[in-house]
Design brief:
Blueprint lengths: L1 H29 L4 E16 L5 E15 L17 H30 L4 E9 L14 E5 L2 E2 L4 H9 L5 E7 L2 E8 L2 E5 L2 E5 L2 E6 L3 H28 L10 H13 L4 H23 L7 H14 L5 H31 L1
């Protein structure tokens, strides 16, 4: 089982990298930027060929990483078709295209998971009924649509649990839509119950189920992807605010361990695979969003320099920008080593 999960992780990370670099490649071709090489993996090439456009396509022996090498990407170039000679908008799109494709991959995975799991219908945020004697039953009526909890927008059922878990008090505030009117109720206690010896807190409602259909699946898949993005931002917020520490960071080893837990926690089978697939989709969206952060060496860091150029109407000298990105790359590698050490420490302990 562990071997299969490691194999899945390697193949999926390779897919994420391929999709990311393919986004850069397609955008570069659209804006007529010369691409010298499109490579999947790192190290010596085990296969390569040149296309009609003189682009070298290669697969390298280490199935981690990859790149889309463009003319003038890391320096100034006067050559025709250089990245550096293109307008700011073109450079922005080329840089953002990789992250965009990662998010699209997450969306596709979400749609697949929803299609497979929603044969019996899709749970909505509309209240079917409330749990008898639950605190919320005094306020909510069947047919109410939940639109907000503790200030967090609610679009799908999963966001209800997330909003409750992010609350810092023992009560919650809720907004519902009833007959085109928005009603707000404050300081409601959660419904507490016990299952398998564990105590849980929930909203205290049962949601309406709608039949599986093209638009219901499309909507659910889209907001599942939005939900994944929210998880990324909430995690970053907790890290910045100190609610989560550096010891909570995970690297590749931790990701594989989480994948294993996603499968084994449900006993494997189709459910375990779907949990694994959902986690893979979340990782793809996570990587896409993280790549857009304005940190040196990331695509977002390069986009940040384009925004500086847009504001100052003067381009930062390529050699100075290169130094900044090199420093950022060193810091990122250090962070990766630290996260990997965290993973190893958790396994040992």
């Amino acid at each position: 089982m562990t071997f299969l999960i490691i194999l899945f992780a390697i193949l999926f990370f390779s897919l994420i990298i391929f999709v990311h670099e393919f986004g850069h490649f397609i955008a570069a071709r659209i804006f007529k930027v010369t691409v010298h090489e499109f490579a999947i993996g790192m190290g010596p090439a085990i296969w390569s060929r040149k296309g009609k456009s003189e682009t070298k396509y290669s697969i390298r022996c280490i199935p981690i990483g990859g790149y889309c090498k463009m003319e003038g990407e890391d320096g100034d170039s006067d050559a025709e078709g250089s990245f550096s000679s293109k307008p700011k908008f073109a450079r922005f799109v080329i840089l953002a295209a990789g992250a965009f494709m990662n998010i699209v991959l997450g969306l596709i995975i979400s749609l697949i998971v929803v299609c497979v799991t929603s044969g019996g219908g899709i749970a909505t945020t509309t209240v079917k009924d409330t749990v008898p004697n639950s605190p919320i039953s005094e306020y909510i009526k069947p047919g109410d649509k939940i639109v907000e909890i503790n200030g967090y927008d609610i679009n799908i059922k999963q966001e209800i649990s997330l909003a409750l878990s992010l609350g810092e008090s023992d009560t919650f505030d809720i907004k519902v839509k009833r007959n085109r009117e928005i009603l707000e109720f404050k300081d409601i206690k959660p419904h507490e119950f016990e299952q398998d010896g564990q105590k849980y807190k929930a909203l205290g409602i049962n949601c309406e189920i709608v039949p599986q259909g093209f638009f219901s699946v499309l909507r659910e898949g889209f907001f599942q992807t939005v939900y994944m993005g929210k998880l990324v931002f909430y995690s970053l917020s907790m890290l910045i605010s100190g609610k989560a520490g550096m010891s909570d960071l995970s690297g590749p080893i931790g990701v594989v361990d989480q994948m294993k837990n996603a499968v084994t926690s449900t006993g494997g089978g189709l459910v375990g695979f779907l949990n694994l697939l959902f986690l893979a989709g979340f990782i793809s969206v996570n990587i896409g969003i993280m790549n857009l952060l304005p940190f040196p060496a990331l695509d977002g860091g390069r986009i940040f320099f384009i925004l500086i150029e847009l504001i100052t109407r003067r381009r930062v000298p390529p050699e100075k920008e290169g130094i900044v990105h090199f420093i950022g790359l060193v810091l990122l590698l250090g962070l990766m080593i630290f996260a990997t050490w965290n993973d190893i420490s958790r396994i040992i302990n």
